[in-house]
Amino acid sequence: MLLVEDDPGDVVIAEEALKVSKLESRLSVVPDGIEALRYLRRENGYAEAERPDLILLDLNLPRKSGHDVLAEVKADPSLRQIPVVVLTTSGADEDVARAYDSYANVFVTKPVDFDHFTKVIKQIDDFFLTVAQLPRREE
Predict the structure, then answer these.
(1) First to last CA, the chain
(2) From the CB of residue 105, how many other CB atoms can be counted at a distance below 10 Å?
(3) Threshold 0.70, pTM exceeds
(4) CA-based nearest residue to 17, from 103, 105, 111, 102
(5) pLDDT digits over 30-64, tens only?
(6) How far is CA 37 from CA 3, 8, 69, 80, 111, in A?
(7) Alpha carbons 80 and 10: distance in angstroms, whole number
(8) Computed over its alpha carbons, how large is the radius of gyration of the chain?
């Protein structure tokens, strides 16, 4: 799983949620949109990066917005099958519509409460990595 998140507090919550879940999800974290695309394309220090089964993407990122990252991922034939969950503080109708127009798989507004946020991360992990059938991973 790749988490694209610039807020260190939200990164800690995601890491804690995955630790307490029964699943052994490997979480990689990048702090902005430029680094996300480098990671996914295995560029600039990410040559050994493992292709994620799932991307958790914040929209409000420095250097390159989550909307731009989503559009590039879904336009790239080698990346477009990776499910992208937009996980952001924005609940604006425009952001929701734009994310789905760019082929986000799910749009989730981040809960402000720690316990609820932890539960949401665990539910996303449970669904995508145990319930949903994903395309076979290509290395």
Answers:
(1) 15
(2) 16
(3) yes
(4) 111
(5) 999 999 999 999 999 999 999 998 999 999 999 99
(6) 12, 19, 7, 12, 26
(7) 25
(8) 14
